[in-house]
Amino acid sequence: MFFRLHDHCVLVEGARKGAIYNLETGKVHPINGGALALLKECQSGPLTDILDMEDTDSKPYLDFLQRLTEMGLGSVYFSAPAPHPPLPEADRPKLEFLWLELTSACNNRCLHCYAASAPDVPPQTMPHERWLSLISEARQAGATAIQLIGGEPLLYPRWRELVIKARDEGYEFIEIFTNATLIDDACIDFFQQHGVHIATTIYADNPEVHDKVTQNPGSFTKTYSAIQKILAAGIPLRIASILMKVNEYEAENIMKLCSELGVQADPPDIVRPTGRGDAKDLLPENYVKPPIKPPFYTDAPTFVRVQRYHPCLAGKIAVLPTGDVIPCIFARNQVCGNIFVSPLTEILSGQSLLSYWCTTKDQVEKCKDCEFRYACADCRPLAQGSDPEKRWLACSTGCSYNPYLGEWEE
Ligand SMILES: C[S@@+](CC[C@H](N)C(=O)[O-])C[C@H]1O[C@@H](n2cnc3c(N)ncnc32)[C@H](O)[C@@H]1O
Ligand code: SF4
Ligand code: SF4
User: Fold this and answer.
1) Residue 83: its pLDDT value, please?
2) Tell me: the pLDDT tens digits for 223-263?
3) Who lines ligand 2 at CB under 6 A?
4) What is the pLDDT of residues 187-212, one digit of tens each?
5) Residues contacting 93, CB < 8 A, separation 6+
6) 3-class DSSP state for residue 14?
7) How far apart are CA 400 and CA 69, in angstroms?
8) Whose CA is nearest to atom 25 of ligand 1?
9) What is the C-alpha end-to-end distance of the chain, expressed in Å?
10) Which ligand ends up closest to the CA of 394?
11) According to the model, what pLDDT value does residue 264 have?
């Protein structure tokens, strides 16, 4: 008699415990160390070699296998079942998403800005022709989504031409991430005509607190009025919000305001330690993000992809006004090349970018020994920024699991 997990179930081993990933339902089932050892032995031989079927001590193990059978995770076989077919290999990711950081200048001076933008920062933009050619080159390399960002992208005088170029090149998704203070009626018409999506940010539901973050008196009123115009024009909008000490009690107010506006808002994020945001005294004192904890879920394509590629970074690049190419808008020091020195195609096929796209949790401190590593989210720039030594492979933040003890700490 044999026991084997079904083909859609994968056993993942941690340092102390394990997990069964059901790739049909997406559910990840944690199992203890004894269960892990039993299932590993089941992979190599008949049950009768592992357990004495007559011995009452074997009963809990047999009950466990029975439970797995009832849960649709595995089966008993009377002759040796075929080994599991190997998992397919994920294709090397193509470029999918492109950030263009059009300018370093901004009319706000937000306390936490990772780009350290402000009105007195020189705009530091690259020649307009280079932005245009980059949009074509990235599209030819596979990109279908583009975001114009900054600094404040609407301070870049010829931003409309870049949108038109992206539209002409066939980008499916064009978004402008703007503080929305400079949006006038002509912008609204343009967004509407060219199918532009807008992302913006609010830090509170009131001017006092919002303007404390932006350090630009009157900014809330302008942003809020633009939000109303954008919504009235039926332009797709998402609203981000970032919490820090001065606005940490605004989380609920922001969510309420967004729901009143009929805009879906993600729970606010906490300031990340990059640029001006890398300052301990900015951090909220009481607000904490929901910690990483079970239940974990995944799906078959994601499970396959994260064996080799990073779940978030792979397929993305950001181009800065200096021409530097980085793997994520937050990963300011991970420069993979410069488009004034090398053609984009060379940077895209280069080892440096590939090494970031290929960062998996199998390399990350602590996570590499955790049974949940193929289902758990990851933000490398956040982990790196939060690490005192700023290591790229520092363990994920916001997780109290100790895979070496198999325990969640308080
Ligand atoms: C850099 S801004 C550029 C676009 C535009 N100026 C704006 O503020 O919406 C893009 C987003 O990054 C967020 N951001 C800036 N610095 C950050 C940090 N240190 N941590 C987390 N988010 C940050 C901003 O709050 C904004 O939502
Ligand atoms: S977060 Fe946006 S609005 Fe604020 S200073 Fe940075 S670029 Fe400007
Ligand atoms: S963050 Fe790392 S240690 Fe924590 S559950 Fe996720 S993979 Fe495991």
Assistant:
1) 87
2) 999 999 999 999 999 999 999 999 999 999 999 999 999 99
3) 106, 108-110, 113, 115, 117, 150-152, 179, 214
4) 999 999 999 999 999 999 999 999 99
5) 305, 309, 314, 315, 357
6) coil
7) 31
8) 242
9) 42
10) 3
11) 78
Q: What is the pLDDT of residues 281-312, one digit of tens each?
A: 999 999 988 889 999 999 999 999 999 999 99
pLDDT at position 7 over 80: yes
Interatomic CA distance for residues 225 and 122, integer angstroms: 28
Cα-based distances in Å from 57 to 32, 51, 54, 61, 63: 17, 9, 9, 8, 11
The CA-based angle 180-100-144, given to 5 degrees, is 105
Q: Give ∠ CA 275-178-138 in degrees, rounded to 5.
A: 85
The reported pLDDT for the residue numbered 199 is: 97
What is the number of residues in the chain? 410
What confidence category does residue 265 fall into, taking pLDDT thresholds of 50, 70 and 90? Answer: confident
* CB 273, CB 299: distance < 8 Å: no
What's the average model confidence in pLDDT over 126-131?
A: 95
- Could you tell me if 359 and 380 are in contact, meaning their C-beta atoms sit under 8 angstroms apart? yes
Contacts of 193 (CB under 8 A, 6+ apart): none
- Whether the link from the prior residue into 81 is cis, omega within 30° of 0, is no
Q: Which atom of ligand 3 lies nearest, measured to the CA of 377?
A: 6
**What is the pTM assigned to this prediction?**
0.94
- What's the CA gap between 144 and 166, in Å, rounded? 9
Q: Using pLDDT thresholds of 50, 70 and 90, give the confidence band for residue 267.
A: confident
In angstroms, the CA 253 to CA 358 distance is 39
DSSP letter at 275? G
Q: Is 22 in the pocket of ligand 1 (CB under 6 A)?
A: no
Top mutation candidate among 12, 21, 292, 395 for ligand 3, by most atoms within 8 Å of CB = 292
What are the angstrom distances between the C-alpha of 400 and each of 42, 137, 215, 367, 373?
Answer: 31, 43, 35, 11, 14
